[in-house]
Amino acid sequence: MRKLIILIFLVLMSAAIVQAQEQDNICPEIVEETLQSVADICTNLDRNTACYGSTDVESTIIDGSTPDFFATPGDNAELLLFSEIRPQPIDEILGRIGVAVLNVQADVPDTLPGQSVIFMIMGDAQLTNESESAFQSFYFLPGITGSDDCYEAEPILTIQTPGNITVDIVLNGVATEMSPGTLLTITPTVCTIHRGNIIQRVDNEVVGSLLANQTIDIRIDENGQVIGTNPNNPRNISEREYERGLLVQTALNDLAQSNGWQEQYITDPKKFDEEPLLDTSSPSPCDTQHTVSSGETLHRIAEQYDTSVLDIAEANNLDNPRVVFVGQTLCIPNPGSGFEPLPAGN
Could you tell me where in the chain the CATH 3.10.350.10 domains are found? Predict the structure, then answer.
């Protein structure tokens, strides 16, 4: 009898372990199944149109109200009607995550039918229209809700350009030139180019660029500014970022098949880099901060705060104290301690 009880106990424990393991894997499955369903839902997606790609997408139209015509999966509506679109975070209990797809003309000529820029936004994020020409200028504003243990469910914006024309957009306030056939993904912590390249300019001056299979680690502040942790030194894509690119490219190609568009494929990387470890330690105090404006240099900023150029460079881990970027937030150490320029020859 005792052996029978022990055997039943072991069987129950094994079943509980299997159930827990299945529960651990539910989030990636929800994301993958949702993306697979988008192609079946978002058919006949015309230019300058948004598609309600899955359950749980909220939106606001230009008069500030919530539309009743964009409320269920498969609903399509003209982009010019929207001021913002907000997919919702993953709900593992109900097994769903919000996804919206946008077919954006941007600056692509009307003479190219079927050629446009595809946006796909998923998870807890907002996409706000800042342009009269329907999302040619926009802000991607990720939220803070989601699954801490599910990489796949991070808020993400995917942008794919047509394969034969350069496209200009304004991404979070920065003019961005995207080469033909570019595939870009941006999350709260990384911006990755899976194919093609981008060049960003402020006042017609190049302030950054990314090539295929390069990633820059970022944060997006409360004003929507994208701030690179080391913008002049992008790293190679990581294996996880590459796998995420494959996932979204597959979803976009399924969408292309259902709409009669041309399929595209991501570029295989020659080398992977490791993602930086998250710093869980308490940050060092920085009572004074400065956000770099157009035309500013580290020399001018140090003069403004009456401190040392090298001290600012060291406090912010700048590889080159002669290079700062618009929108970059700098810690200003020891303001009022006396201005010191770069030493001669540095």
Answer: 279-346
- Given a cut of 70, the residues of the chain with pLDDT beneath it are 1-24, 110-114, 144-148, 231, 278-285, 344-346
Q: Report pLDDT for 233.
A: 81
Distance CA 100, CA 73 (A): 9
The pLDDT score that the predictor gives to residue 345 is 59
The predicted model scores a pTM of: 0.78
Q: Which CATH superfamily is domain 279-346 in?
A: LysM domain (3.10.350.10)
